[in-house]
Fold this protein.
Amino acid sequence: MSDFDATPIDEQASDLLDDNGTADNNDPAVVARVRQFASQKAAIADVDPPAPAVRERLVAAALAAAPESNVIPLRRRPILAVGAGLVAAAAAASLIFVVSNRHNDSRLSSATGTTAAATAGAAPQVKAADTAAATEAAAATTTAAASAAAPAATAFAGALADRSYNSPQELVTAYQAARDALAAPPPATTVSPTCSFAGERIGSITYQDTPAELFVTTDSFGHAHLTALAIEDCHRVIEVAVP
Amino acid sequence: MADPDAELVAAAQRGDRSALDRLLRRHVDRVHGLARRLMGSEADAADAAQEALIAAVRGLPRFDGRSTFSTWLYRITTNSCLDELRRRSRRPDPRAELPEPRAGGPTVASAVSDRLDIESALRTLPMEFRTAVVLRDLCELDYAEIADVLGIPPGTVRSRIARGRAALSRALGNPEPTTERPSNEP
């Protein structure tokens, strides 16, 4: 018999220990062997855990090896849409500030055209030459944000635009339904194509018989705000926060 | 059998790094323990465990749930240990000597020395017996799972476990059973 052979008693004892056997467990020799094997089993299982530093190193090394597919692309994270919105809002605010200083007009102009290109995807055309360099950089950021959010805005447009609303609640309810149905974050903030307004254009609506352009913005807490500007003169026909 | 890790695995496969972190922490001790028992030293165990966990993370997108995650992970760990041993062309530590046989059977008092001796005794076992015994006694895999991990028939698993335990018992100095009729591996 070699060092690595097993007797029938060994086999019976091993089976009994693993609950696999129908072996005779009244045989004292088998019972004694089961006890020996059980003791060995307990000793094998009683292995020291790795030291905390070793454990952390093992986990860190494994996490570092995670393939790209295990990492959520940043641009898909809703928080970035909010961030992009904030960047775009800041850029748009700069534009509004520049434009309002230039024209010194308290009323929003529907003909400035300074920001129309942002949502259209073309280069922004800033009339004031002395502010062109500053606003181009800001508008470029805005355009990028608008492009990134375009699919969401398009989807919202299909659900909300070209309809009539008569109350803030009606508008909010429609927006919430669209948002829930689309399971999409609010579109990022960009710049109105017709009015100097920092918001993502959803589409044309009629609010209390006034033709208007509907925009959505996202505040720093991630809450959406709906704003409708009259097509005729860009005045605000409604502004409401979406819970 | 439902895999208790299924939710974490699915989340990790979707790219949830927090889930991956929790999944790793849930198994790192057992992976390290398996490596420790198969490799025989702390330093080698840490190396093999690291190799195994890295391989598991890289292979996670391809894990299809046909076995439980833990069984899959133990297979990777076992292979990592075997690869490591082959790479180093290392036989069981030559400095490890067989423990002195003790007179009489196991007692409560001998439990402590059992723990101290078990590592040396395990090192005397050929790897095919050592892996089968450790996967059973430490990882608590059943015979079918061990067969899956090692790529051998369940009957061979049963034989290797019995023979490994018997050899381990001899290495620890336990008395032989009275009947001595050798059996052969199927």
Notes: Helices of chain B lie at 6-13, 17-39, 42-59, 69-88, 108-123, 127-137, 143-150, 154-171. Residues 94-103 of chain B have pLDDT under 50 and may be disordered. The radius of gyration of chain B is 18 Å.
